[in-house]
Amino acid sequence: MCGIVGYIGSRDASEFLVEGLRRLEYRGYDSAGVAVIDRGAIRVCKTTGRVDALHGRLLSEPLPGHAGIGHTRWATHGPANDANAHPHVGGLGEVAVVHNGVIENYAGLRQQLEGAGFVFRSETDSEVIAHLIASCLDTQAATDAARANGAGLRRDVHASLVTAVRMALAQLRGTYGLAILFRDHPDVMIAARLGSPLVVGVGPQEHFVASDALPLAGYTDKIVYLADHQLAIVTATSLRITHRELGAVKPSVEVLQVDAGDRTLNGFDHFMLKEIHEQPESIRNAMRGRLDVENATATFGGLNLTPQQLSSVRRIILTGCGTSWHAGLLGEYLIEEWARIPVEVEYASELRYRNPPVDANTLVFAISQSGETADTLGAIREMKRTGHRTLAICNVVASSIAQEADGGIFLHAGPEIGVASTKAYTAQCMTLAMLALYFARMRHLGFEAGRRIIDDFQQLPDKLGQALQTSDQVRYVAEKYQHARNFLYLGRQYNFPTALEGALKLKEISYVHAEGYPAAEMKHGPIALVDQQTPSVFIVPRGFVYDKVMANLEEVKARGGPVIAVVQEGDRRAAQVADDVIEVPSISESLQPLINVVPLQLLAYHAALLRDCDVDKPRNLAKSVTVE
Fold first, then answer.
1. In total, how many domains does the chain have?
2. Cα(593)–Cα(169) distance, rounded to whole angstroms?
3. Residue 191: CATH number of its domain
4. Cβ–Cβ contacts within 10 Å for residue 46, how many?
5. Strands 206-210 and 199-203
6. Are 613 and 270 in contact (CB under 8 A)?
7. CB contact at 8 A, 605 and 598
8. Residues 6+ apart with CB under 8 A from 403
9. Which of 183, 193, 546, 558 is deepest in the core (most CB within 10 A)?
10. CA dihedral sign, ordered 433, 435, 441, 444
11. Do residues 187 and 236 make contact, with C-beta atoms less than 8 angstroms apart?
12. Does residue 245 sit in the same domain as residue 276?
């Protein structure tokens, strides 16, 4: 949820730390801070607000030094203020820590440390870690001194630091990604991971630490992904990794795949708008190399299951949170319709604590843009614990979920910076559609039917490009209803998930209350909300429930409710009834949701601008939800 950076080398640390935090700000932006070792002391600068505010302070109060750590925060324990901002300093200033994650037993540890004389200056769970490490450093120093005096041996300083950190970590219950500085050892930094992502960038005579690869682009092209229970001992010229049980581990250095250009706006006003417009290309990337036209099917290289194992699947569970859960709902419709396999879509936060009956022939797919969603990670761990095969659908290579799952499918949507997901959502839907075709062709779906589906797939990028041309019309609609305080989003069958996703987007970035429903459910309660100030957004594509949705639309109009209708091009019937009509290109009914969601994304975007909201960094939200 929070963003971590670290640097040790010959350049000015603050320069990289600030730029790295800017690139990680989508992970949290309640406050930001850095700590740098300068002239034998750990010096800290931190402030409430965005990284730009931190940068302003550093311009007037520079922190020179060649080793430093930084943090951008999404508040969990304690409000967003200067005291709760990271880094936190432990003991009498001998250690500084930045932390991503949650320490569940912090209250008991804090009480214990306060009893030992440690003074706390924040309300966070993270400060406990700093003081705990300082306490363990004192204990280890006493042990080293006794051993040295008794045996006349010279102690290994770095080994002693590692031992002290391990001693502290053993007392923590929860999740952490950590970068740690030591006042008396400015030549070394330690990074540790359990449940929160961390990477190490390898450069000539310098090393970097970060929550993900994005801050490293342009600084190094070599990266090491840390795994759970691993600890990295980092100096300017060396990198050593140890594992809690396995001991020393040889670093696996990979080529960094992120381009620094992925972090630029490329002429767009906001990352969300840029990513909405990238959807034609992200859909092409999701399909690239995965459509087997000759055999009228899809193909996936990373499932790690034999055709015989896949043929034996009798039930599928799709689990995720938020937007990923909505994609799973569309996946349920497609897989059941095409492949005739029963599918259940579960909120990951609920699945991990339930005890549902799951038989041996059930396959579990975890859906996550970041691959770090804590609830989803917990759910697949629980499914694995009970012996079920788990597969991942995510966008980030080497993410926690990708590593934990038995196999998976990468979206290849490219970095998504805007907190409200757009292109990752449609890439998830596209991937699930290909998965539905894959399972269907393994069972009963004929060759010609498979070819027709592939033909529709191949039309999608161009159709999405046409849907993007509705932006001006959608802006007009947003202006008309910019003062509305409540919206209803209504669709049926394949477009019920689209209604949910449209409502979520409006809530996320414009702070307008919105609810999504199956259109027929209106008369079972929500129709009581309809009045002249509550617009209803109907998704009304042609299809076998078109007449039914039009009847639901008429019910709202009869009660004086304004109606915005998203329809296929040339639909004159809806235009005669709705107050505002947004026409989108036609495609097969089952894939129409990928087209219909585009104007809903644009509606949320324009509404947010008109309401003067922060489009890319909406309040209280963060991109990667790494806490429960």
1. 3
2. 47
3. 3.60.20.10
4. 23
5. antiparallel
6. no
7. no
8. 225, 227
9. 193
10. negative
11. yes
12. no
Residue 232, token pair as written in the block: 């990295």
Residues 405 and 491 in one domain: no
Enumerate helices (H) and strands (E) in the chain, giving the number of each.
19, 27
Residue 380, φ and ψ in degrees, nearest 5: -70, -30
Residue 189 inside a domain? The answer is: yes
Same-domain check for residues 371 and 485: no
Residue 85: CA count within 13 A, CB half-sphere: 25
Range of the domain at 301: 266-445
Write the pLDDT tens digit of every residue in 448-501.
Answer: 999 999 999 999 999 999 999 999 999 999 999 999 999 999 999 999 999 999
| Alpha carbons 56 and 4: distance in angstroms, whole number | 19
Cβ pair 224, 197 in contact under 8 A: no
Q: Is 623 a catalytic residue?
A: yes
Residue 190 to residues 6, 14, 234, 322, 354: CA-CA distances in angstroms? 10, 18, 6, 34, 37
CA distance 22 to 249: 32
3-class SS of residue 536:
strand
Residue 472: what are its φ and ψ, rounded to 5°? Answer: -65, -40
Strand partners, 392: 366, 408
* pLDDT tens per residue across span 148-199: 665 555 567 788 999 999 999 999 999 999 999 999 999 999 999 998 889 9
Query: For position 327, which CATH number holds?
Result: 3.40.50.10490
Above 80 in pLDDT, residue 1? no
Contact residues for 213 (Cβ-Cβ < 8 A; gap 6+) = 199, 201, 223, 256, 257, 258
Q: Which of 2, 136, 321, 613 is catalytic?
A: 2
Q: What percent of the chain is predicted at pLDDT more than 70?
A: 97
- Reduced to 3 states, what is the DSSP secondary structure of residue 318? strand
The 10s digit of each residue's pLDDT in 258-308 is: 665 667 888 999 999 999 999 999 999 999 999 999 999 999 989 998 888
Between 323-339 and 423-443, two packed helices, what is the crossing angle to 10 degrees? 20
Residue 623: inside a domain: no
Fill in the DSSP letter of residue 103: B
- Catalytic site residue 429? no
